[in-house]
Amino acid sequence: MTRQVIRTAWTIAFRNQRHVPQPGHAVVIEDGRIADVTREPPEDAERIEVPEGIALPGLVNLHNHTLNAPLFRGIVDDLPRSTIGESKVYSMLMPMGGLAVSMLAPEAMRAVMALGLLEVMRSGATTLVDQFRPQQPAIIDLARDWGVRLYAAPYLFSPTEATTEKEVAGSSAGSWEGDTGLAAFQRMFDAYDQGERGLVRVILGPHAADSCGPELLRAADRIAQECGTLLTTHLAQSQGEVARIAARHFMGPAEYMASVGLLREGVVFAHGAHLTDDELGRVRDGGAAIANCASVFLRGGKAPCFERFRRAGVRVGIGTDAERMDMFAQLRATGFASKQAYGAGDAATAADLLHAATAGAADILRRPDLGRIAPGATADVVVIDAGRPHLQPVCDPVRSVVWYATAADIDTVLVAGRPVLRGGRAVGLDEAAIVRDGAAAVRCVWDEARRRGVFPREAEPVSETGL
């Protein structure tokens, strides 16, 4: 039996469906599961000691695109609406993502995915839900090799000829044009899925409500239920999407999901920013969940509201989407946006946000053993070194973690008891090489985008000669 003890100043334990700070307690781990949270841990164990530390459950990133953060870093920021158009999803994100997939050799694509996944792993996320093109299976290999829990959702698209809007039809470029991607999903599921308690799950990932028609969505729903797996898709992420659904199907986004069987438990909608109050009620009653991704909207001057979802009774988690993949930064952005929207300091409290990013999201993923430090739970644990100036003194460790901690404060990350980060460094990885190779591959995509005229001119840095 392998036994570990994590000794910190505070442990954020899970008791009576709440995260409860316990001073002076240690976490005892046996064979990858939490055996006890106690003041008197056994002596015969491997010890991880951070004297001023805070031990908390591993965070669950409920919606992400690992390729996008490094690919668009410094490009989509500060852009005017005239450059972005109705939605940057179809004007920028999907076209450049398709370009990357089509031009990069497998080893270069792996380098970009490694750069993004390293950022995820260093952010305290022990579980990641990621949507990607089927030609990016490197993310699965990397997650499996590095020990990161991954819910891999390869994109599905309706055939381009079935979509009348040019930009939406082009979103699948670089993926499986002329095919939906269902066959690719099945191959990936057969090759990689490790079952409901495995490190890697392959789930259904229809791209969005306006890029996937009813036949494809019904097929995806049927396969998800037959395979006993989850499904995630973008929903109501822009007013343009809402208008397209109304024009094509004569209904709103929630009704459209209900018509194809997806307004149910086991379905995660990314964003939901433009759902009406009535539609939120339907999402709640159907048992589906929403991944709230605040930063990508805030960057464009919009504010999807976590507190609105929470007060509506919708099951809600936190995702980073295509933004900086730092879960602590995302928690703060989510909380501040909600407080501003409601004009109330007690909207989106630290306790609410931590629950959404841990136990709440784990329950959405049908993993009641994740997102909590409690006997019997899987030992996904993050240790913050709270001895830093910006974290001292600690009054309430939950508030300290949510409102003041950063990814750079992480000392240790365990996934099922396996250390993937120790002393603030990734275990067994050459981080400098990962950063170097990933950045070089991204620059190749940028150079090609410039040659093709799809790199936004407003994103170019101002040089001295341009002054």
Identify the overall geometry: globular
Low-confidence parts, pLDDT < 50 over ≥5 residues? none
Distance between the termini: 66 Å
CATH uppermost class of the largest domain: Alpha Beta
Q: What's the architecture of the largest domain in CATH terms?
A: Alpha-Beta Barrel
Q: What is the helix content? A: 25-40%
Total separate domains: 2
| CATH topology term of the largest domain | TIM Barrel
Question: In angstroms, what is the radius of gyration?
Answer: 22 Å
The overall average pLDDT, rounded, is 92
What can you see in these coordinates?
With 467 residues, the protein is of the alpha/beta class. It folds into two domains: 3-57 and 375-426, Urease, subunit C, domain 1 (Roll), CATH 2.30.40; 59-364, Metal-dependent hydrolases (TIM Barrel). The protein is built from 18 helices and 18 strands. It has helices at residues 68-72, 81-84, 88-103, 106-121, 138-146, 166-169, 182-192, 214-227, 239-249, 253-259, 277-286, 294-298, 306-311, 327-342, 350-357, 359-364, 397-404, 431-452; strands at 3-15, 18-23, 26-30, 33-38, 46-57, 59-64, 125-132, 149-156, 200-202, 205-206, 231-235, 267-271, 289-292, 315-318, 381-385, 410-415, 418-422, 425-426. Strands 1, 2, 3, 4, 5, 15, 16, 17 and 18 form a nine-stranded mixed sheet that branches. Strands 6, 7, 8, 9 and 10 form a five-stranded parallel sheet that branches. It is globular. The mean pLDDT is 92.
